[in-house]
Every structure is written in structure tokens, then in C-alpha cells.
Amino acid sequence: MYSDDWLAKGWASDPPTRLHDAVDYRFWRDEQGDVIGLGVDFEWSGDVHYEIAGRALLKLLKVLGVGDGEDVRGPLSDVTHFSLDLEDLLRGNDIPFMKDSYR
Q1: I want to staple 75 with a disulfide (CB 3.0 to 4.6 A). Which of 3, 46, 49, 64 is the partner?
Q2: In sequence order, what are the beta bridge partners of 20?
Q3: Average pLDDT of the chain?
Q4: Which SS3 state, helix, strand or coil, does residue 70 take?
Q5: What is d(CA 78, CA 38) in angstroms, rounded to the nearest whole number?
């Protein structure tokens, strides 16, 4: 997962932000505090975790209609009712991601 590399570099994530009962997201930041990635965690359906990094994150934000400095919570909430909704969005828009599942 990208986060393994980010942790090795000493980068950290923001605290998780809850979207739904068992879904949250967190931004990852480098040592300057710049956003370098996004993690979305589904704590049900077998603990499925998605990570989107760099340019792929910028592409996702564009697809979601989120501009610079705008809150991602609403648009991200709309596509995270089920992990497959998010995965379909990512795949359908050729957005690279990493996925891990603890089933």
C-alpha cells in the first residue's frame, strides 16, 4: 500500500473523518503538510481499504467536481455508500488506486 511508503518517509495522515456508519477517509501529508494521498476505509464488508496518490487524487477530485480548497466530504460521501461504488468510479475513470482487504 502507498501508506507503507508514506509512513517509511515519516509522512502522516490527518485524523479520520467519518462519512457513514463504518466508512471514513483521511488525507495523507508530506513533511511540509502538503496533501499527497487519500485513504478511504470501509470497516465493514471485510475491512476494505483504498488509497489514491498524487495525480490520481487530483483526477479523482476533478471527477467528483471538487475544486481547490473545497470540502470533499459531500461528494466523497455520495460514492462511498458501498466499496464497489468507489471502486467502480475509480476504474471507470482510469484512476489508479491500491486496495487491501482483510477478509
Answers
A1: 64
A2: 23
A3: 90
A4: coil
A5: 16
pLDDT tens digit sequence for 27-57 = 999 999 999 999 999 887 568 899 999 999 9
User: DSSP letter string over 16-53?
Assistant: PEEEETTEEEEEEE-TTS-EEEEEEEESSTTTEEEEEE
Do 43 and 28 touch, CB atoms closer than 8 A?
no
Give the torsion through C-alpha atoms of 55, 91, 51, 34, to 10 deg: 20
Q: What H or E segment, with its residue span, contains residue 91?
A: helix 83-92
**What is the pTM for the complete model shown?**
0.87
- Cell numbers that stand for 98 in this block: 491500491
